[in-house]
């Protein structure tokens, strides 16, 4: 019985740990979606007050530059709103859990 428990404990510790983010990558560019509430005032100001609480934090790295954004689920996609007013959709199927370091 101890052998079974020891094997189970080893299997649990050997599995990769996932961060609380989902990531979509295209070459060197990436978008990271977090579950934490959106805190970017620049994005929140663009959103109607009644939907602000539905958005979570996100960041995008494009050509080496980091952009803050907020996102929410929209059907089978993630709808992103960036600080500069740009918007985009990423299919949920493109998002993968990020492995923790």
Description:
There is one protein chain. This protein is of the alpha+beta class. The chain has one domain. The chain is 17% helix and 50% strand. The chain contains two helices and seven strands, in the order αββαβββββ. The chain has a seven-stranded antiparallel sheet with strand order 6-5-4-3-2-1-7. A hairpin with a 2-residue loop joins β3 and β4 (65-74). Residues 1-18 have low confidence and may be disordered.
Furnish the topology, listing elements before pairings.
Layout: H1 2-14, E1 18-26, E2 29-37, H2 41-44, E3 56-62, E4 65-74, E5 77-82, E6 87-91, E7 96-99
Antiparallel strand pairs: 1-2, 1-7, 2-3, 3-4, 4-5, 5-6
What does the average pLDDT come to? 82
Supply the helix-strand structural class. alpha+beta
| Tally of DSSP helical segments | 2
Total domains: 1
Give the low-confidence spans: 1-18
Count of beta strands: 7
Strand order of the largest sheet: 6-5-4-3-2-1-7
Distance between the termini: 33 Å
Task: Describe the main β-sheet briefly.
Answer: 7 strands, antiparallel
Strand content: over 45%
Helix content, binned percent: 10-25%
Overall form: globular
Q: Output the helix-strand order.
A: HEEHEEEEE
Whole-number radius of gyration?
17 Å
Quick tags:
7 strands, disordered N terminus, globular, 2 helices, alpha+beta, 7-stranded antiparallel beta sheet, 101 residues
Give a nutshell description of this structure.
The chain is 17% helix and 50% strand. By secondary structure, it is of the alpha+beta class.
